[in-house]
Each structure stands twice: as C-alpha cells, then as structure tokens.
C-alpha cells in the first residue's frame, strides 16, 4: 500500500478534465456545416486556447503560492547531499532539458519511420509509439520515484506532464500556428480520440481519488492503456 497527496492528484486530474472539455466542444460542433462553421471552430479553438493557458497559470499560482501548504509532502529519509544553488540547478535543468528534447526528437523520428515500415497504423504510431519514446525520460523518473516510495513525485510527473501538454503546450502551438504555420490549427480531433482522452481522464480521476494505491490498481490502469493500444493497432485505415 502506497500513499500520496490526494490534493495534488485531484488538482492535476481536474486540470486534465478541463482540457478534455475544451477538446470535446470543438469536436462536437464541427459536424455542423462546413464553410462558416469551419471558421467558427477556428475562432472557438483560439479562444479556448487562451482560456486553457489562463487556467494553467492560475493552477500554478494556486499550488505554488496561495495554497502551497496543501501540496507539501513528507520527507523520505535524510538528504545525504547539500542542495544545489538555485542558479546552478536551473541552468543544469535547462541544459539537460534541451539535450533530452534533441535526443527525443531524433529518436522519435527514427522510431516513427520504423513503426510505419512494420505496418503499424498512423494512429497507433502517434498515440502509442511516439508517446512512449518521447516520454521515456519522464517515465523513467516516475518509475524511480515509485520504487523509492515517493508516489507524490511519480504522480506529479505523470499527471503534471499531461496537464502541461494539454493546457499550455497545445494551446500555445495553436496560437503560434496563426503566425508561423501554413494553416491555423484548431482543437478538433476525430471522435475516437476525444472519447479515449475522456476515458483516460476519468480513469486518472478514479484511481487517484482515494490517496492510496496498490499493485492491482496499477494493473487496472495498464489494462485500460492496453485496450487503447489494441484498438489503435487494429484500427483499419480511413476508407476501409
């Protein structure tokens, strides 16, 4: 039995659910007519992107400033090493982040080509293969934290990373696409993807609601993931 900070998990799950709503609305209304409706979805996606960025910033303010005492976790053992100076820690983090991003980009591109060569569907490559390879560094840190009974760290990495992508990175890319991209991006996704995101968010909320976890809870979460993976792997190409 492992315990973790339930408040932190609830906050991250709530942010993910908010992002899911923002994905669900444009996809739900995109079936209305083409023409004016397409322009409406683009404007709606741009407005929703701004709201998601604001929500992400307010979430950081809530957890790091106004209610930071709710997110304090107990120390696990004595620290054998003196803490680094802030400047050195931030500089090291920035350099390592750039190196990891560079290696992940090269690795993802090569793995994507190999996966397509093996006949994997584009949906499986995008949702499973690229996601696993691109998040390898984060997953390693999350696994290491869980093995050391620091489940708060693992959950912060897993849910926090997903929240950051959904509420900050994706909206920023949509806004930048108006200035840098050949065509503006929007928040429309095919219905199956939206349903999977919604189910994944509800699963994260369900398993983190109690503040405790056992190995069988992990089995159930993996089963949900494998259901998604099997569906995407067997998904026929468009038009078949």
What's the helix and strand layout?
Blueprint: E1 2-3, H1 6-29, H2 36-66, H3 86-117, H4 122-134, H5 136-147, H6 151-180, H7 191-208, E2 212-213, H8 215-234
Helix pairs in contact: 1-2, 1-6, 1-7, 2-6, 3-4, 4-8, 5-6, 7-8
Strand order of the largest sheet: 1-2
End-to-end Cα distance, whole Å, is 47 Å
Radius of gyration: 20 Å
Largest sheet: 2 strands, antiparallel
Describe this structure in words.
The chain has one domain (2-71, 92-234). The chain is 75% helix and 2% strand. With 240 residues, it is mostly helical. Helix 1 (6-29) packs parallel to helix 6 (151-180).
Summarize it.
The chain has 240 residues and is mostly helical. 75% of the residues lie in helices and 2% in strands.
Describe this protein with a few key phrases:
2 strands, globular, two-stranded antiparallel ribbon
